Amino acid sequence: MTPSMSGSPRGLRLLAALALVVLVTDARADDDHVLHEFVPEVDTDDQAGMVLGRDATPEAILYEGEMLSAPRGGALRSNERAMVAPPDPTGTGRDAPGRRSPTFRPDRITSLEGSLGYFTVFSPSIAPFKRVSALDAVVRSDSGVPVLGVARPNEITPVPMEGAIAAATDGRARDRFWGSVVLDFTAGDRVPFPSVSPESRLLTMSTEPEVDLRIEKDAADNFFAVAPSRMGLVRVTFLTDAPREYFNARAIPEVPVDALAEEVFPLDATTEAEAIRFARTIGVSRDSDLPTALRALTEHFRSFVESDEPPPDTGNIFRDLAEAQRGVCRHRAYAFVITAQALGLPARFVMNEAHAWVEVKLMDVGWMRIDLGGAANALENHGGGDRPVYRPREADPLPQPEAYRQSYSQLSGSQVQGLREGEGEAFAEASRYGSEGVAGQGVGPGAEGEAGEGGGLFSTPEPESRGRPLRLTVDTSNYEVFRGRSLSVSGHALDPDGQGVEGLRVEVLLRGARERLLGVTVTGPSGAYRTTVGIAQDIEVGEYRLVIRTPGNDDFFPARAR
Fold this sequence. Notes:
- The strands form eight sheets. Strands 1, 24, 26, 27, 29 and 30 form a six-stranded mixed beta sheet that branches.
- The protein has helices at residues 244-247, 269-281, 290-301, 317-324, 329-342, 402-409, 424-429, and strands at residues 19-24, 50-52, 58-63, 66-69, 83-84, 115-119, 122-123, 133-135, 137-140, 146-149, 157-158, 174-184, 190-193, 202-208, 214-217, 223-226, 233-243, 347-351, 356-362, 366-370, 378-382, 416-417, 471-472, 478-482, 486-494, 505-511, 515-522, 528-534, 542-550, 559-560.
- Helix 3 runs antiparallel to helix 5 (329-342).
- It is of the alpha+beta class and 562 residues long.
- It has a domain at 19-70 and 471-560: Sandwich (Immunoglobulin-like).
- It is globular and about 75 Å long.
């Protein structure tokens, strides 16, 4: 017997991979009534549903079957850093925590860094990709060094409050994120405001204490919060979103590389000529099509290695870094942006206190994030221990050379601290496969049309023999089950041709605040699996994600049911 509710409860429409398990009590007042706990009604107009309060304010968002409540307020905590008005004046390295850098000047320290700290703002977590500083111009300094900056810092656009359920006018699919950050207006009334993507919308916002803040951004999509006057600390809790294809585009448009060249801030003639000459050495020019050029650029700059020996100093730091392929994240992103802009491709250098990466603008897609690697020895993720990890919906469509994958293999396991229990796998898989659990078709290495491996931060390289994607299905998306009872799960493991894969281990797990293994089975001759698992009496009543996954084998990548 299933519990009854007032009204007609709607089924939760979840992200395509996850089954929902609603655990109810088996305590009965009599044979005709079941005691239960109320589950709030969920808006399911899209895959990231929302729970709204009586006044239509968002109380929770649904991410991969998990309800993420609005962040709690209160004073600045020890695992946070306030954003402050004065910029980081150095313009080198990475942003200091809480500060934005108005410029970036390259250095020659190309060795691997030790341990870096990252301060989480968003839920689901996008660590370590919180946008703080975005630079879109290349200006040659008096000493002849190309320096990155903001092309039009005084071109300011207000960011409206659009409402929790406002439809995007561009029609692009988006995912929602909670944000919580403390802003320090002591030294000025205009403070940097972190963002998920350059095209994020601000849906709702509240402040403690209550202050009439204005949010705006410049032409490089650096966001700011503006207060009526100088004041102390203000906590801002907000709901934002981002286009899904910002994290990984489904496909790279088949257009010339310079199709959007009019949007690139003009380079000086010397820097442009140097970058064009370098681009020819990796096989691209302004006559190249965008997929070819982006594939070559990503392959080259992801192939950098960290080195205690900087490249030989010829007096041209851009060429020295680009040609020697030595350096960490900031060196890769710096040289990539200069080369891309010289080719007529809009590109930005983006960084925070722990990482640097690039954004490129694609026709009919918008901005897309490209991680180039360059990890540290370890990462401490402050404030992220209670948050799930965001998974891009699509696999990385770009090449993932061995040097790139190897550079991140060291950031697995105990070297990444501050993740919620059970999220290590999600963190490793986030970009490598996308949330479909299967490597997508893209412009990756190999023959045209070959399935790319996807590229992800902190992903562990796979042996060369494990080269085939796998699709794991589950037959039922929603379950209701009593504690102390059993649950039957079934589905198939299929290869890229739709043929069943026999002999694969399949694990069934229940995920709430932590993960619990319920049982293990093996696929049969047709790739089918079926198992019945027990639900322990000590599990609390509520909603959980049912995770079905396989570690793969020597022929197939790991996968999880989507």
